[in-house]
Structure formats: C-alpha cells, structure tokens
Amino acid sequence: MNEPRFLNKNILITGAGTGMGRATALRLALEGAQLALVGRREEPLQQLVTEIEALGGNAVALSCDISQYKALTHCAEQIKNRMGHLDGVFANAGVLGEFQSLSDTHLEQFAQLISINLLGTFLTIKSCLPLLESGSIVINSSWTASAVMPGAGAYASTKSALLAMMKTLAVEQGANAIRVNAISPGIILTPMADDVLSPELENTLAEHTALKRNGTPEDVTGTVAWLLSEDSAFVTGQEIIIDGGYTIGGLRL
C-alpha cells in the first residue's frame, strides 16, 4: 500500500477557517500533512485544529491578517520554530467585496481588495519563501480573471493580477525547485459566495454550467492536493480552471 502523499510534509494554508481553505486542510490532513492554518479569526481555526486532531492529524492555528507583513513574518517565525520548514503553500485567502459595477466602486473598496487579494498573497509568499527549500505554491485566483461577471470587476482585477504574479514566480523560483501554479475556481458555494448569491442566481448559474450544478469546496481540494504533491512534479506556471464547465457553457441570457 502506498504511503500518504503528504506524510512528513508541512503545508501552510491561508484563509483556512472556512470554505476552500478549510476543505483543503481536511483533505491534506487525511493524506498525512502537518498543517499551519492561517486566518483572521481564531475561533474557526481552533475548531478546525480540533477536527484535524480527531482524524489523527497535526495542525497549528495562526491568527493573522495577511495584509500586514509584520504579522506574516511573525507567523513564519512560529512555523520555523514549530516545523522547521515548509513543503508547500496554498495562498487561498481573499475577499469578494461589494457586488457592484466598477463605476460605483469606491476607491476605499478597491483598495481593500488590492490589500488582501493581491498584496496579501504577495506578502504571504514573500514571507514563506525562506522556509521553502523546494516544494509547491498554489495561488487561488478565480474564473473571473479570464471571463466576465458584471459586478465583480474590482475583484476580478485583483485575481487577474495574481495570474501574472504566479507565472513570474514560476520562472524566478524554478531553479530553486519551487513550483508555482494557480487554480481558478468557478461558482463554488462557500460562505463568501453565499453573501452575494441569491438562491435564484445560484440556480441560473448552475444551469449555465456544463455539469448543471455549482461547485462545493470539496470539488476544489483534489486539484489543490495534486498541485501541492509530487504527482505534479513537472507542472509549473499553469492555471487550472475548476468550474464544472461554466466558462465553456455557451450563451448566457
């Protein structure tokens, strides 16, 4: 029987308290990973640690605002002291912001999206690189980076920038045996999505998806696990869209 893919591997996940981050943490724990769980709110992180330990896994909760570099460097110091190094990073944390047209988006709203989605991801990776002797970084972008959803323009702008960052990092870090890739999830029913999607809109979006349903956080975890594992050892600089065929769904009315 093969050993778990992440046995003796240390993985950091941002935005780990809910949604795709939480689901991925549980998936990786079942495959043997030791996890550093980063998020703004400590309570859901601690609940997740309890669940992972009940599964026989090992995890530490690190409450942190990823837009604050000093806070991230402190997290990195804690990880170094506890784990010694990292083998992978899932830079997952992000916010959707207000669902409105670009013309109605205020400067402060756009700045917050840049601060968390773009700058926060950059700072996460920058603080973690010294702990990565080799391994894999996965950035959570969005299907809106290459397709249009009116109302999500500011969010999409930050997510598009992440793809440029990902490709540049892949080239720059390749010689260090560090792979960098991105996932672009489609309509995934997370707590963040629930805040802006009405049941009627959810049904409409599902109808425009080739698989005739919206995604769940668990639909994302397999791809993230693959990209973080040695199963994808020759894959870097790539974007994988996880959308059930939404972006090839044809005419939208």
UniProtKB/TrEMBL annotation:
State the coiled-coil residue ranges.
none
Any matching Pfam family: adh_short_C2
What is the organism field in this record?
Answer: Marinomonas mediterranea (strain ATCC 700492 / JCM 21426 / NBRC 103028 / MMB-1)
Keywords linked to the UniProt accession = NAD, Oxidoreductase
Enzyme nomenclature, EC number = 1.1.1.184
InterPro entries from the UniProt entry: KR_dom, NAD(P)-bd_dom_sf, Sc_DH/Rdtase_CS, SDR_fam
Q: What is this protein called?
A: Carbonyl reductase (NADPH)
- Domain of life, per lineage: Bacteria
* Gene3D superfamilies linked: NAD(P)-binding Rossmann-like Domain (3.40.50.720)
